Amino acid sequence: MAKEFKRYLVTSALPYANGPVHIGHLAGVYVPSDIYVRYLRLRGRDVISICGSDEHGVAITIKARKEGVTPQQIIDRYHNLIKTSFERFGISFDIYSRTSSPVHAQTASDFFRKLYSEGKFIEKTSLQYYDEEAQQFLADRYIVGTCPHCGNERAYGDQCEQCGSTLSPDELINPHSALSGSPLVKRETKHWYLPLDQYEGFLRHWILDGHKEWRPNVYGQCKSWLDLGLQPRAVSRDLDWGIPVPVEGAEGKVLYVWFDAPIGYISATKELTPDWERYWKDPETKMVHFIGKDNIVFHCIVFPSMLKAHGDYILPENVPANEFLNLEGEKISTSRNWAVWLHEYLDEFPGKEDVLRYVLCANAPESKDNDFTWKDFQARNNNELVAVLGNFVNRALVLTQKYYEGVVPPCGALTDYDRETIAELQRVKSVLEQDLENFRFREALKDAMNVARIGNKYLADSEPWKVIKTDPERVKTILNIALQITANLSIVIEPFMPFSAEKLRRMLQVDSFDWERIGSMDLLAAGHTIGKPELLFEKIEDDVIQKQLDKLAATKAANKAAEASQNIENQKDEISFDDFQKMDIRVSTILEAEKVAKTKKLLKLTVDTGIDKRVIVSGIAEYFTPEELVGQQVLVLVNLAPRTLKGIESRGMILMGENADGRLVLLKPAAAVFNGSIVG
Question: Could you say which DSSP state residue 523 is in?
Answer without folding.
Answer: S
